[in-house]
């Protein structure tokens, strides 16, 4: 009969090896290029055997989606889609079907682009997707379809960031903001859609991109203020995300060392891409609350946070934290900040219960509104295609 030590020795050896491998993994994460692979997962396309220049593969109607390339100010080429709203497509189906298919060499000459620019009532969603994959990956096509039906004339412009899919370059925090700005400038300067007819949509990583875009343009003089911002499965910042995040939903990043705050802070110090979503959103709201001036529209910001309780990639506590920072940014400068627990107690009184659908709460400032909507089901990606998101986009358009 084997002794206790004979049984424990191989088990301890295996455990020690696992710990060693994990710390080697952490050491590798101090290398910026490897960090980028983990944070952005841009080489995991998830559409290896599909051509993103043939959107009909994902069930779209012929030429309902126009694939095109978009140049950035720093010389990168981004692969993009323009998705037509269903009613607009129905009215122009014959002409659209007669156009060439595939990658459009000059988007400005396409019928779809003219249907966007020539419609004085056209709405536009700037779509910033999450980490990994391409424009056609996962639940993104279903999400486009849901959003294109959110309003009778809601168009969608979506990009693959630099380093993703067929886009050139390598992802970085500054680079993705440049990409987001390129898409926004294309919408406003080339398609001539004013910001009050534009809603910014972001999911997961895209919430960081969308908030960075909103904050950057809102800081200009005069400010560029969109109709609204809809953030699905947002994260507070990368530092907080490392406590819970698992690569591909399975491999823990820094959660095993989170029980040692000093050790977690040490490893977080090596992270290059910070993505401070909570801070940038708070800065934007605070700026909108304090800015005065003739001619400014009454509602300067309309932000909706949507998160599923069963999201195992980014826990919904991140939305709670982002909402907390947003609410404190609405308060007068001389007013004391609300503690997290104080706000949670207030939310218990204010929130609307939706039964199996979850709950929502709305907080208004003098310059705008922030909503938090927590649904019971939807995981990390599937929720993008849910009606709660389409309604949030439609509400932002209506409010503007």
From TrEMBL:
Alphabetical UniProt keywords: Membrane, Transmembrane, Transmembrane helix
Keyword Transmembrane assigned: yes
UniProt keyword annotation of Lipid metabolism present: no
Residues spanning the membrane: 12-34, 253-277
InterPro entries: AB_hydrolase_fold (IPR029058), Hydrolase_4 (IPR022742)
Top-rank lineage group of the source organism: Eukaryota
Domain Serine aminopeptidase S33 per the UniProt entry, residue ranges: 150-244
Gene3D superfamilies: alpha/beta hydrolase (3.40.50.1820)
Name by which UniProt lists this protein: Alpha/beta-hydrolase
UniProt source species: Pseudovirgaria hyperparasitica
